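Aim 2 progress. For SH3b domain-containing protein, the working sequence is reproduced below.
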Amino acid sequence: MRALCIALPFVIATSAVAQDIVPSIARVIGVAEGDVLNMRAGPDASDEIVGAFPPDADGIEITAYTPDGRWARVNADEWSGWVAARFLAPSDLPTFLSCFGTEPFWSIDLYGPDGGIWSTPEGEFSPTTSEVLTRTVDVDMRETLIALYEDRRITVTSFPETACSDGMSDKLFALGASAIIQYDEGWGEVWSGCCTMVAD
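Predicted structure tokens for this construct:
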């Protein structure tokens, strides 16, 4: 795997739980000991239960809310489901943003000011030979990071997407991603994927 250290984070990776900002990381509140917070197939108390969180659960990724804010779509294991939003509160856990795709397999994990790791099927990048050129965020919450490595220019962009799927699990994500690899020889590749917020 290739690993490219990148020293700039995606700003959205530090977002707190808020109904106008997703993804975000939450913890369970208001659930009695011995009880659970049910995760349902849809945003209704009559929908099928597809999972459950214990009363001390933390690090839960929120990827969407219903228009009335009563239900939150969350990811757990290999699927997504809905929980009552009143039982969620902002988590204090550190987080990072991970963007990834499957054709081919690639990923970039952004760990805040300490940098991040870029991976592709080809091998390893040397952190000392990479250079971050720019990072921008526009009004539509699209974030772009550009870095150089030897004979290639790498551009990774995250952008809001209502239900991004990685094609391998039943999870749905709040951010899509694209990776553009441009080689000095004049050719390039465009890869697509999703981004997820991860509790560290």
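The mean pLDDT is 83. This observation will guide construct design in the next reporting period.
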